[in-house]
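Before a colleague's protein record goes any further, I have to sign it off. I want your independent view on whether this chain really folds as the tokens say. The record follows directly below this note.
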Amino acid sequence: MAPGARLLWWASLCLLCAGTHAANAVHQAERLTLTADSPHFMAPPPRIDVLPDTGWQRVSLPDVALPRDGQGEGITTTWYRLPVPAPHDNPTLYLPRWQTVGQVAIYGDGVLLWRSSGDLVWNGFNRPVWLPLTPLDGRAAPGELLIRMDSVTGLGGGLSRVYLDDTDALIWRYRTRLWLQAVLPGAIALVFLTLAAFGLSLRHSREDRTLSRLFLAAALLFALRGLHFSGPLDTRLMSSDWFGWLTVNALLGLVLVSLLFNLRLCQRRLPWLEYTLGGSLLLALLTSLPLFQASEQIVALAGATYGIALLLSSGAFTLVAVLAWRSGIRSAQVLATCNLIGLPLAAHDLLLMQYQINLEHPYLLVYWEITFCLLFSQILYRRYRQGVDALEHHRRILADTLARREQELDASYRKLREVEQRELLALERQRLMRDMHDGLGATLTNALHIAQQHRGEDDTLTRTLQEGIDELRQTLDSLTPVGNDLTTSLATLRYRLQPRLEAAGLTLHWSMDALPAQHTLTAEHIRHVLSILQEAITNILKHNRADTLHFSTRMDHGDVLIELTDNGTPFSPQNLSTAETSSVERRGRGLTNILSRAATIQAKASWQPDTVGTRFTLRVPGTRPTHHQPVPHQTPS
């Protein structure tokens, strides 16, 4: 069951319970009908001394004293006389409903106790009467009650049952009916106006904007229609003529807005139907315009207006319901069902207004209007939630996009930092190379020239200076920004060592395959490789007494394989344990340096003696080592 249908069922049940039989309800009364000489309403006198004894008729309550038979003239006064039951602690009169175009007054023992207020036409017929019967001056409660009803002849008048009991026994009935008949419609109208204004202030698509405007129109019309039930009207705020014109025609506007809303939900347009209903509404507005009609005449035309509206809306609602069910859109189907439910409720209220059914029945169409507006609110709320969910979805997409952009910017920043570090490192290398070349290199070269001039080339000091210069040149070569190109570094080593080898009488045979770029070799790794090779060549020059040296490189299973083969004295590291000469000790320190440097870069150095000469092999891995071992202090060999 839809929320609106549940509310309608609950409200109707409460109203019926509030009007059911009570132990002290007055079901019988005496009625006297008099016709006034004056065609105008007179204020009820403060006291009634004498009433005719004849002409009283016993009637059952609720009673229709003046059936509605069209527009009449003159004033008819109807008296109801009823006794007050046995005394109670707090005797109270509760009158659920009375209805007439005129005024009502209640007398106790001939003294005026209560009278209707406000406009004579829109006089609060839907508001129950609550009247404590205990006088404030301490006198006893009245023993007889008189109810006076002044009505326009021909426009009808009637009275519901009268309840006389203690206040505690009746108060819940009075409050329930008052709240449901007068307070609830006005409160909900205010809520709907607030929701409609809020919904219109939001940004919508073109379709939702149309629905929001229709909902605002429905909320305004419902608020105007609710004024019809919240009387009595204070004519100082609005004249009776214009009030009746607005409230009567507001119902026709609600019918038109409901149809337009339902068609928009079905995503259909029926121009002929929309123009027909719009023209009917315009005709009703012009016909009942207060410039041409008095307030009493508007009331007389209201019944005919409601009847014509019921006939037109019956066919229109049925047609739109068929379209809604064919569309398969649930919101359109629910609204169409709600509109169809409103048809029998409208017929009920029309009969009640014509005094054709029990006067204690509540007007029910106002609750259809509540469910109608509740359904509007639910539809717009769902559209609003869909919009919010869509915005949230876009927000998440933007957040993800922003996160990705931040990651990309962070990666770009890291790359820029790496480039800056490489540039700074290159600049620092160039500075070190320049300082070492211009400073230490120049000093060593001058020292070598001096030593050669004074002691000869075979002097130990001369060899030591030459080795220092070669070591310095090797360091400078490793710092040269050639990247990870091992081939270029080896070619530079050959260029550096070629003069020294030729001076020592050693013939060099160079055989080197093209080596691919080793991305895992850094400048530090290349420097270790060059130092190992230079140390090995130095040992060959000093100790092996060779005259031929073969240098070769090639790739072997992803590793770089470098081989030095000489034709001198065979050599094996195992012989170092029995060596006793100082030269062998010096060689041992050189071999230790070679092995330590090879371990640092996770390379493998090995010697293989032959009958003639020795083969030295250095295998450099193709993957970068994960740990670096410290290079110990190197002792020159």
